[in-house]
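Hey L., structure's done. Input below.
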Amino acid sequence: MERDEALTRLRSARVGRLATLTPEGKPHVVPFVFVVMDRGSATRLYWMVDEKPKRSKELQRLRNIEHQPAVELVVDEYDEDWDTLWWVRARGTARVVVETDERDAALGLLRAKYPQYESTDDPGLIVAIEVESITGWESEAGSAEQE
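Output:
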């Protein structure tokens, strides 16, 4: 899969799986929703710690990013017809967004993609992922992998 096609599929994905590492070096994977922002040759993802009920406000994924900001995520399409399978994986560095203009822009993009965020008056933390590499695979392409 070519990089442009991988980015198109990443942009259109409604949910992904985010992998971080605990301070003990163990993988931690959670589903998450996100948006993609391209600025020239740079690609950045944003996601928000939203108001959905959670066991704790001290989220493991945030502690993990504070300890080790390297992250990886995957989006995919599964079907019983295995000729249509595909996945896209992105690797990058995560950080909590603190700059107001960037935070407002990211929140606007998240609200545009996910109507559930439109009524969020007090959004939680917003996290940016600076994408360093994108890999994709699709069955129809003869199992070709590009980086």
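Residues 3-137 form a domain with the Pnp Oxidase; Chain A fold (CATH 2.30.110.10). The two ends are 9 Å apart (CA to CA).

-- N.
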